[in-house]
Amino acid sequence: MPEPVWGPDGAVMICSIRGFGCVEGLAPIVFAAVTAAVLGGCQTTQPTEMTASRGAAAERSAPRSAERYRADPNDADAAVDYAGSLHAHGRRVQALAVLEHASVQHPKHRGVLTAYGLALADIGHYRRALEVLDRAHADGAPDWRILSVQGAALDQIGRHEDAQRYYATALRLAPDEPSVLSNLGLSYALAKDLVRAEATLRRAASQSRNDARVRESLALVMGLQRPGLPAGGVAGPSPTETKVAQLRQALAQQNGWREPPEWEKPQLRAEGS
After folding, report:
1. Is residue 90 within 8 Å of 26, Cβ to Cβ?
2. How many helices, marked H, and strands, marked E, lie in the chain?
3. What's this model's pTM, rounded to 2 decimal places?
4. Which DSSP state fits 138?
5. Looking at the DSSP assignment, which residues form a beta bridge with residue 259?
6. How many structural domains does the chain have?
7. 130-155, pLDDT tens digit by residue?
8. Which of 12, 26, 231, 235 would suit a FRET pair with 262, their CA atoms being 20 to 30 Å apart?
9. CA-to-CA distance for 161 and 79, rounded, in angstroms?
10. What CATH number did the domain enclosing 64 receive?
11. 228 belongs to a structural domain
């Protein structure tokens, strides 16, 4: 079981992820906002709408979060709060280690599992993220936010039909939710169905006029179609390898992730080891 080690600045440095050591990541993710929405039962606020305010709050509360976690590293809520503060400061790997420790201590805590699954997805461990997020749903009451994230993870590993089923379920729970529609549109594009991709992204854009990422995704998909064809016309050639990479990057950014290079991906301990 990983144990926390405290650095000179009071930040936790858990080195349970073999081959990686105690280093800082480069970019924050939105897992704190999604976790708060899941546990708070909010049914209308989009995750992207909460990101900026919660990120700022996490930065302001960082010393308090570290103090609380240091006082009791086995407190689940303190672990999630502290991991959020670490992410807000770009310390993605330290945040992941905190959540790995918390998931061992609290294997059924929805907040811990949600945050841990999102942190895993953020560093590109999509299959492990899917396993963890499966356990984050309340019994008999799946959460549309988690379903959407799971769909995005499935898209990243090429399982587009499975991803689209997750999005469909999420949309039954949250009809016309723009963040889910946007993920679904990119999923169609990755599956080379550009007509449906454009139509879905246009629908997402109409529901979320202030989200620049949705408009950027729509522009990317429209650029994949043959020049001169009217919007919604016959799809052009299948996306090239470069365009597929751009679509995957857009999907990652839409969900607050950054696809790291291979050398940056820590090697996780085997389950139960």
Report:
1. yes
2. 13, 0
3. 0.73
4. B
5. none
6. 1
7. 999 999 999 889 999 999 999 999 99
8. 12
9. 35
10. 1.25.40.10
11. no
